[in-house]
Write a sequence for this structure.
């Protein structure tokens, strides 16, 4: 398997995640989570989005959260926008990168931002001007790049066409999203390769959801294709409120756990990340989808029951409470 030595994990839980929660997360709690994540070594974070509070009431406090978050050296504080008004808010807030999102499906784009792709592109032209005048790098995000929850398959040519439009606007980075977790590894690998081959030298972010349990497999596929930046959401929070059946992003700590197990550096302290995930679970008040936070790290040494350390070993299953699954004399 061809793997890179280092991967950047871009945290989106406080945007993609908190936008999907039923209960409004208090502003101070949102900020505290942003700070904990950057303290754990997250170097890029999509703090929030500057969209309509009518569309996404959970992020109506975007300015406050963005302003209150601690600025850690070496960390890029980024935001998502959907129209020129959002871009102006992002510039005023001091965003370090602005992500503009357009779905490669007209129907999904309408559901998400009440605009056709062409209307969104007209907004993107204005957004690029606003960001450009402020000297802020722009990320061109292609949502529903693998499939649309309403119309099904999204042809790769359409995704590439939309990417062309972004590149003409001078984006500094592209971003492909499997927004509703419908992509299969082969498709993700093909799409990632196709985008990277078409725009050599232009950095690419891969944004995957785990709706159907395929996110980690899709990460491997994208890694093989050469991707080195992945979005992820603490605890596996999140989903798009405008996509039926959507669920969480790939879980940050599960992703980091896998990357470290593959000897890929991330610069992230996994133990701190796991502690943050546990706090987020308490904060949102329901069980999150992440696995490692519940099961523990796979390389965590477990305390050995004293009976197992005795020279004669365990004689019968009755010797050790909880080892009934052995069902036999364990010394055999
Ligand atoms: N920031 C704050 N308010 C905004 C705004 C922005 N960027 N853009 C629009 N608004 C306000 C308008 O002033 C209007 O408010 P009012 O009803 O009090 O007058 C309201 O939002 C609706 O605006 P309108 O221009 O009629 O847009 P719309 O209803 O067609 O919605 C979007 C279009 C793009 C504003 C809205 O769909 C949106 O913000 N979507 C974001 C979705 C999202 O974040 N998805 C997840 C990320 S992929
Ligand atoms: Zn998403």
């Amino acid at each position: 398997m061809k793997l890179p030595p280092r991967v950047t994990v871009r945290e989106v839980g406080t945007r993609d995640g908190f936008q999907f929660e039923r209960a409004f997360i208090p502003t101070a709690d949102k900020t505290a989570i942003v700070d904990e994540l950057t303290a754990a070594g997250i170097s890029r974070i999509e703090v929030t989005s500057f969209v309509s509070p009518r569309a996404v009431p959970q992020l109506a406090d975007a300015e406050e959260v963005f302003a209150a978050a601690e600025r850690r050296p070496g960390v890029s504080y980024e935001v998502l926008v959907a129209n020129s008004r959002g871009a102006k808010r992002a510039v005023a807030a001091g965003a370090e990168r602005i992500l503009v999102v357009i779905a490669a499906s007209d129907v999904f784009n309408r559901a998400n931002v009440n605009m056709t792709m062409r209307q969104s592109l007209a907004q993107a032209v204005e957004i690029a001007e606003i960001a450009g005048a402020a000297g802020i790098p722009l990320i061109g995000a292609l949502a529903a790049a693998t499939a649309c929850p309403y119309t099904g398959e999204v042809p790769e040519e359409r995704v590439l066409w939309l990417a062309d439009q972004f590149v003409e606007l001078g984006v500094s980075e592209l971003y492909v999203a499997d927004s509703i977790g419908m992509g299969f590894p082969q498709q993700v690998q093909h799409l990632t390769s196709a985008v990277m081959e078409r725009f050599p030298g232009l950095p690419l972010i891969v944004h995957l959801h785990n709706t159907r349990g395929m996110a980690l497999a899709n990460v491997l596929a994208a890694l093989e294709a050469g991707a080195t930046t992945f979005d992820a959401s603490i605890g596996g929070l999140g989903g798009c409120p405008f996509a039926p059946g959507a669920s969480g992003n790939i879980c940050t700590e599960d992703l980091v756990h896998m990357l470290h197990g593959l000897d890929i550096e991330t610069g992230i302290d996994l133990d701190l990340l796991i502690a943050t995930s546990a706090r987020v679970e308490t904060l949102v008040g329901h069980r999150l989808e992440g696995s490692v936070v519940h099961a523990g790290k796979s390389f965590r040494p477990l305390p050995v029951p004293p009976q197992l350390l005795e020279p004669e070993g365990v004689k019968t299953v009755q010797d050790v409470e909880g080892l009934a699954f052995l069902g036999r004399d364990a010394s055999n």
